[in-house]
Amino acid sequence: MNYGETIITTAKTAAAWAAVADVTGWPEWTASMTEVVPLDRPTLGLGSRFRIRQPGFPTTVWRVHDLQPGVSFAWETHAPGVHTFAYHRVEAQPDGTTRISIGIEQSGALAWLVGVLTASRTRRYLRMEAAALKAAAESGTIPSPAPTDEAAGDTMTEGARRTGGR
């Protein structure tokens, strides 16, 4: 099952990224999340884990597996029979606006069943989250994200790190 949402904001790309990267702040902006707790470090970093509580869903732990600061990050979670991957991207548009894209991809033996049971809520939550990220980016009150450990390779995917950047 694949679900995605894209929204355009008048905010600059840096402001949109600040909102996207402020994952622990998301529950302040959207009712689709009640809690985002960092388990390893307070900011995004390759391998960082975050416990997320959402109304109507079980609590999950998401692990960042791809991070391109200022551009995108992706994280994943596993449950019996289901692997869920979520992406978050910002992209400058030629007209000076910024596109924010978020989405969920589910695979595994039980993904079809989870999709049937949660499709409506998942789509609604993605719409809520995209609108909240847009509003947060346009508010101008989000601090810039803390720097990642770029020197340690936090801007690579884990697969690229294992293969020497290929």
Question: Features of this protein?
Answer:
alpha+beta, globular, 166 residues, 33% strand
How do the SSEs run, as a string of H and E?
EHHEEEEEEHH
Task: Give a quick account of the main beta sheet: strands, pairing sense, barrel closure.
Answer: 7 strands, antiparallel
The helix-and-strand class reads: alpha+beta
Count, helices = 4
From the alpha-carbon coordinates, what is the Rg to the nearest angstrom?
A: 15 Å
Q: Strand percentage, roughly?
A: 25-35%
Termini separation comes to 28 Å
Poorly predicted runs of 5 or more residues = 149-166
Total strands: 7
Write the layout of secondary structure elements.
Elements lengths: L1 E8 L3 H9 L4 H4 L5 E4 L10 E5 L6 E9 L3 E8 L2 E11 L5 E10 L3 H29 L18 H5 L4
Antiparallel strand pairs: 1-7, 2-3, 3-4, 4-5, 5-6, 6-7
Helix pairs in contact: 1-3
